[in-house]
C-alpha cells in the first residue's frame, strides 16, 4: 500500500453480503479489511497475478482422434439450406 492511504466508507451493505464476506475472511485467515482490499485490487486489475482458472486443465492436450466422434461432429455442423429459407 502506498504511503498515503485513503479511507472509504461503504454504505448499504446487505446482511447476506456482510455474512459472506466475514465468512470468507475467516476461511482465508485475513481481516475483513484485507479481504475487501484484495477484492478491490483484483477488480481494478491491480492484483499481483491474473487469476488462473484451472477447472479444465486436466483435459488440456488430452484429445484423442476418433473417427466416430469426427463423423458425429461433422453431422452436427452440417447446415440444411431448407432450414434457412
Helical fraction equals 40-55%
Low-confidence stretches: none
The coarse silhouette is elongated
Number of helices: 3
Oligomer: single chain
Helix-and-strand structural type: mainly alpha
Strand content bin:
under 5%
Determine the N-to-C terminus distance.
Answer: 62 Å
DSSP E strands, number: 0
Order of SSEs? HHH
Main sheet properties: none
Mean residue pLDDT: 88
Query: Which value, in Å, is the CA radius of gyration?
Result: 24 Å
Describe the structure.
The protein has 85 residues and is mainly alpha-helical. The chain has a domain at 1-48. Helices cover 44% and strands 0% of the residues. It has three helices and no strands. The radius of gyration is 24 Å and the shape is elongated. The model has no long low-confidence stretch (mean pLDDT 88).
Amino acid at each position: 500500500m502506498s504511503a498515503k492511504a485513503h479511507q472509504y466508507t461503504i454504505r448499504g451493505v446487505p446482511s447476506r453480503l456482510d455474512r459472506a464476506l466475514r465468512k470468507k475472511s475467516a476461511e482465508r485467515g485475513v481481516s475483513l479489511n484485507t479481504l475487501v482490499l484484495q477484492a478491490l485490487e483484483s477488480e481494478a486489475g491491480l492484483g499481483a497475478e491474473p487469476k488462473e482458472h484451472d477447472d479444465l486443465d486436466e483435459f488440456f492436450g488430452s484429445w484423442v482422434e476418433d473417427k466416430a466422434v469426427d463423423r458425429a461432429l461433422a453431422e452436427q455442423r452440417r447446415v440444411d439450406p431448407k432450414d434457412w429459407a
